[in-house]
Amino acid sequence: MDNEKIEILERALARERMARKEAENILEQKSLELYYLAQQFKEANYALESLVARKNIELEGVFKNIIDAYCVLDLYGNVLEMNSATYSLLGVSKGSKTINLLEFVAPEEKVKTQEAVMEILKSGTYQDLRVKIISRQGEFKYLHINASLILDGYGDPVAIQGIARDVTQEKIMQNELIESEDRLKLIIQNLDTGVFLEDENRVTVIGNNKLFEMFYIPHTIDTFPGNDITNGEKESKTLFLEPEKFEQRIHEIFEKKEPVIGDELRMVDGKILERNYTPFIRDGVFKGHLWSFKDVTVTKKYSASLEAQKQKFSNIIANMNLGLVEVTLDKKAVFVNNSFEALTGYSESELLGESINDLLQNTTEAKLFFNQRVDETVKDGSNSFEGQIITKQGERRDWLISSAPNYDINGIVIGSIGVVLDITDLKALQKTKEQLLTKLEQSNTELQEYAHIVSHDLKSPLRSIFALVSWLKEDNKDVFTETSLENIQLIEATLEKMELLISDVLNYSSVTSDTLEAKSVDLNLVVEDLHKILYFPDHINLRVINKLPTIQGDQTRLQQLFQNLISNAIRFIDKEKGLIEIDVEEQELYYKFSISDNGVGIEEKYFEKIFMIFQSLNEDKKSSGIGLSIVKKIVDLHKGKIWLNSEVGKGTTFYFTLVK
Amino acid sequence: MVNNLSILFIEDDVVETMKMNRTLVKLGLIHAIQEAKNGEEALRILMTKENLPDIILLDLNMPKVNGLEFLKIIKADERLRYIPTIVLTTSNNHKDLLECYEIGIAGYVLKPLKYEDYVSKMEKLLAYWSVNELIKA
């Protein structure tokens, strides 16, 4: 062995030793590192453990303190663990004995809950379970529950954990929403306006009964399907008088998508509809629209008839013979009719806006008078007055004006309306009438006077003749023959009859309403007086059967009435024992008198004639034939009637009535 | 004692005047009759104021100044108004009668148709005034 070799060996050995030493050092170092690492790990593990523990505690705290109820159940629903929210939700106190959650479920929800539990067991979770429970206190609560299954290390289910939220408030709000939707639906359903709402695709969202009724659609709000209206208008257009136009207009409206109000539609059945269209546009995007149809037939007909009435009255006003003018509070004309133009001579354009009384009057007094009357009307209400105006032509006309305040729709006086009647001619007529009456009265008086003068002038010559004849007789008593003397006597008798006639004519003409005086007249006294004045032959008796009344009349004329009838009776009695009876019967409005005699009687054919003037039935020299005419005239003037009953040879009864 | 009267007889009718005169003769009365044909003439007579009549018999219907006018005039005269005036007329017009009494008359006698009735009325009338005391002018 060479040294070299040894040396080499030795050097090799040395290197080996060195290496081993190195390795040992490394090992030692590594093991130290490992130690440190283990040390570190141990620390880390410890830290981790404590972290986990901390987290556990935190988690437990979270569960216990979260607002939502959290609980863990066994597979039969018995509570293993639950937080305080759960306690308060169920209304149980802590430390209660075993609680089974299923007990709280409302009876009608039990089946649903069972099913949910089965689902959890099957699939491991169940979300959005909504269940109604009854708390220990008997309160109803609505819960929203999410639940999952807990498995052990071998993957077998051991428990169910769940989180529940009280959604009672939500549920209430939801119910309210439903209710208000129902209400809205009810309102729409019962609206008197036919409506339907369409979405942006023209699918009907809602339509009401009124609409269906209007368009004869066999649906109700509940059965009407959401539908495309394009068919609707095609089906419905035949209901309208102008179907094409109806359809066209709908398309037009829909194209524009602008609100339309008050389109008038006339239907074949006579209905008149008013159509409104309201598009809904939100943020510039079309969202749908509302069609509404209102049946305005009655309103239309009413306003049509109103219009017709208005037209009628306008025509009447325009064409009536009465002038009509409407003035403002400051008396400026705002309306005149044709007649008013004709009455004033001014045209409408000349009248309107003018102060009417300034135009038609020319004196301050007259203007003031008319203005005051108008003011009175405005202040006190309807008024009527007469006045004179001056026409454009300068003619004075008499007007009768009826005026009334003019109100606006709020009942505030805004002026007055005058209706004018031109009474100029009437006035003239009235004046003429008055003049005529005065004249008539005058000529009546004159006639009366004339009758007196005539009777005087006629009587005077009679008197003279009488005197002269008397002297003739006196002076020639011894010369005249018997015949001559008889003739003279006849002359005298004729003169007497002539005088009686004149007196009676005068008397008859004096019986007029002018000379009639109305006083209380006791007819008993009248008859008593006559009994004394008149000549009653011994064989004639006058008897008053019932007491006579006192009536209103002319004493002289009433006396004349009785006198003429009684003296007639006396004159025509031809019996040995004459009887004149006066009687009275009271009627409602008048007295019926009768004067009867047992005289010669009158033939029926003369019943009318005897009342006519100069119709004497016999040639009695003492009768002028005027007596009964006077009687009739007096009865007439006392608003009575006269008639008679008679039998020739037996007697006559005159009846007459006098008003009470 | 019976007075003989001085009478102013106002009458336009000749026969009436004759009647009056004949009546006086027939009755044998001696009254002084002064005739006037109308009111005008009568006034002329009265205006002389000499020998005023005791009474006046007055017809109403006369030409010129008629009876009523005449009556008004003398009743307005201070002296003449005291002469009793009796109206002798045909008019039984109530209006005339009233007016006459209103102005002032001493009597109103209707002329009857019959002459005998006239005589009888005049006899009474004149007899009445004959026994009256009268203002002598």
Class per helix and strand makeup of chain A: alpha+beta
For the biggest sheet of chain B, the summary is:
5 strands, parallel
Mean pLDDT of chain B: 89
Number of domains of chain A: 6
- Overall number of domains of chain B: 1
The CATH architecture of the largest domain in chain A would be 2-Layer Sandwich
As residue ranges, the low-confidence spans of chain B are none
Sheet with the most strands: spatial strand order of chain B:
2-1-3-4-5
Helix content of chain A: 40-55%
The CATH class name of the largest domain in chain A reads Alpha Beta
Q: Largest interface, and how many residues on either side?
A: A-B, 19 and 19 residues
Domain PAS (chain A): 55-124, 309-381
EC number (chain A): 2.7.13.3
Domain Histidine kinase (chain A): 453-660
Catalytic activity (chain A): ATP + protein L-histidine = ADP + protein N-phospho-L-histidine
Short summary:
The complex is a heterodimer of chains A (660) and B (137). By secondary structure, chain A is of the alpha+beta class. Chain A has helices spanning 3-65, 84-90, 110-123, 168-190, 209-214, 229-236, 243-256, 297-319, 338-344, 348-351, 356-360, 364-380, 424-475, 482-510, 523-533, 555-572, 627-637, and strands at residues 69-73, 79-82, 125-134, 140-151, 157-166, 193-199, 204-207, 260-266, 272-282, 285-295, 323-328, 333-336, 383-390, 396-407, 413-422, 519-522, 540-544, 550-553, 578-586, 590-597, 642-647, 651-659.
Secondary-structure map with pairings?
The complex is a heterodimer of chains A (660) and B (137).
Chain A: H1 3-65, E1 69-73, E2 79-82, H2 84-90, H3 110-123, E3 125-134, E4 140-151, E5 157-166, H4 168-190, E6 193-199, E7 204-207, H5 209-214, H6 229-236, H7 243-256, E8 260-266, E9 272-282, E10 285-295, H8 297-319, E11 323-328, E12 333-336, H9 338-344, H10 348-351, H11 356-360, H12 364-380, E13 383-390, E14 396-407, E15 413-422, H13 424-475, H14 482-510, E16 519-522, H15 523-533, E17 540-544, E18 550-553, H16 555-572, E19 578-586, E20 590-597, H17 627-637, E21 642-647, E22 651-659
Parallel strand pairs in A: 17-19
Antiparallel strand pairs in A: 1-2, 1-5, 3-4, 4-5, 6-7, 6-10, 8-9, 9-10, 11-12, 11-15, 13-14, 14-15, 16-18, 19-20, 20-22, 21-22
Chain B: E1 6-10, H1 14-27, E2 32-36, H2 39-47, E3 55-58, H3 67-76, E4 85-89, H4 94-103, E5 107-110, H5 115-131
Parallel strand pairs in B: 1-2, 1-3, 3-4, 4-5
Helix pairs in contact in B: 1-5, 2-3
